Amino acid sequence: MGLKAVFFDLDDTLYSSFKACDAYALEQLAAWAEQTLGVAGTAFADAFRTNRLRFARQQPGMPPVHDRVLFAQGALERLGLNAVRYARAAHRVYWEAVFSKMELRPGVTELLDDLRAAGIQTAVCTDMLADIQMEKLERLGLADRISYLVTSEEAGMDKPGAPIFWLAMHKCGCLPHEAVMVGDNFRHDIQGATDLGIGGIWLNWTHLPRPEDERDYFEAHSFEQAAAHIRSLL
Questions:
Q1: Could you give the angle at which helices 83-101 and 68-78 cross, rounded to 10 degrees?
Q2: Which residues pair with 8 in a beta bridge?
Q3: Across the beta sheet with 121-126, what order do the strands follow?
Q4: Widest Cα–Cα separation across the chain
Q5: How many CB atoms lie within 10 A of CB 13?
Q6: Which end of the chain is more exposed for a tag (fewer CB within 10 A), N or C?
Q7: How far apart are CA 127 and CA 171, in angstroms?
Q8: pTM above 0.85, yes or no
Q9: In the listed set 38, 68, 101, which residue is the last one of a domain according to the structure?
Q10: Among 96, 63, 58, 97, which residue's Cα sits nearest to residue 74?
Q11: What residues have CB less than 8 Å from 80, skipping those under 6 apart?
């Protein structure tokens, strides 16, 4: 197929699991709120979650909000606390907890090194803020192994919207049939990519039922399986 580029989702694809990381981060936020603000930790964590959902409801026609400073701001205001004073601190507590719980999937560094040796461009295509995802790649030891980062913040739209994939192709200098996208979210990663003619590799590590979908894609249940399939395309 003349493979020139491989695109990777980040959260739950190159590391796992974001759900576990998020749960731990909310626990740490609750402990921080009790110690620093003198309020019930569960009340603060619940307000943080509520504000996250509020943005999704109130801004349906806009790109999703991923900024935890805004989630913390709304939580603090709900509890009658100084948001300007504490929102950024809460943001740091949340993300430091996430960073500390990330676990790189086995085989990731080896595959990225092999792709670089073969002259294949790589891009992380991810729904999140650029600075946070850059920090994750640094903490995971992948910053020097990835050719490009493309975030929804930069593209102006979350996956499965086309802009993030077109931007990745532009950066990598490839056409749709010269790239494959690896991701755990079937709708965002696989449907979004294959709608444009990019090959899809679904990392179905949670063993979800196979969707009733006629599009052509490869299904893997571990990153090692996905890596073996990519190597077969070289």
A1: 130
A2: 124, 182
A3: 148-151, 121-126, 5-8, 179-183, 199-203, 218-220
A4: 60
A5: 25
A6: N
A7: 17
A8: yes
A9: 101
A10: 58
A11: none
> Do 64 and 9 share a structural domain?
no
User: Could you say which DSSP state residue 219 is in?
Assistant: E
**Nearest to 148, CA basis, from 131, 161, 167:** 167
Q: Are 25 and 48 in contact (CB under 8 A)?
A: no
For residue 31, give every residue at least 6 positions away whose Cβ sits within 8 Å of its Cβ, in sequence order, or none.
41
Digit-coded pLDDT (tens) for 38-55: 999 999 999 999 988 888
Round to whole Å and give the CA distance between 74 and 91.
Answer: 12
Tally helices (H) and strands (E) across the chain: 10, 8
Reported as a single tens digit per residue, the pLDDT across 51-99 is 888 887 776 656 678 899 999 999 999 999 999 999 999 999 999 999 9
Question: Of the residues 101, 128, 155, which one is the last residue of a structural domain?
Answer: 101
Domain containing 216 equals 5-16+103-233
